[in-house]
Amino acid sequence: MMTIAQRDVVPSRSDQDYLLELWKGSLVEMMADVSEAVLRCKDASQTAKAESVAAIADARAASIDLLLCLERKIDERLGQIRKLLDDKHGPAIRDFEDGKICYAGELIHHLGSTWQCRVDTARPPSDGDEAWQLVAAGGLDGRSLRIRGTYQPGERYAQLDVCIVNSASFVARRSTSSAPPGDDWQLLCGQGKRGQTGPKGDRGERGPMGPTIHSWKIEPAAYLVTPIMGDGTEGPPLELRWLFEQFHSEAS
Question: Residue 82 half-sphere exposure, CB side, CA atoms within 13 Å?
Fold first, then answer.
């Protein structure tokens, strides 16, 4: 029977040192390979990240260019539509609104004047602003008639005051306290002649029968007499005490 000696299983001291050195060397090489792999992975990750950031930036720039292109096309189309409407109906005029864009070519009404927009802007029209061209300046406020009602003697009437005398209306030509008609007044509308009598209308339907008294309710203690109407309702009571008191006074 064959046995395994200790020397066949446990290496000698010199062999142990040699094997330890080989293991250390292998471990160092393996760690170096791992470190190199980690570095390569890190570099690859940074490269991918940089490429992703660049791709996102390119995509954003492309989307912005696309939006700008769409806005230009929309503005062009709106301009064409406005031109078609202007050619058919004439240019539309709208009031200026704070914060709302006014587009080139639009006619805007602001503070009594009419302006034409030269370029797209949200600024209000004003003199000296190159974005606006004055088309028609606002005029002075006009004067109108002032109704004073029926003429009152002694009152002062200003020019363009209107009053009524004998169913006719007069307007004052100048400031005056004289009564119309006269040199200070202009007849506006005189009383017309009486018109002809119109044709007689058809006879109307017979109306409902009015209320009638059916009987009386007498209350001697209270000196009250209350009428009972034909529909059964009570009419207003009559107070007779004063009448009896007067009769008693005259009789005595």
Answer: 15
b/e per residue, 92-126, with b = 16+ CB within 10 A?
A: eeeebeeeeebeeebbbbbeebebbbeeebeeebe
CB 150 within 8 A of CB 144: no
Separation CA 70–CA 160 (nearest Å): 60
Is residue 19 helix, strand or coil? helix
pLDDT at res. 2: 46
- Site of tokens 């200026």: 96
| pTM for the structure as a whole | 0.31
Q: Which two tokens stand for residue 20?
A: 């330890």
Q: Which residue has the tokens 């004063």?
A: 242
Burial class (CB in 10 A: 0-12, 13-18, 19+), 170: buried
Per-residue pLDDT reduced to its tens digit, 19-47? 677 777 777 777 777 777 777 777 777 88
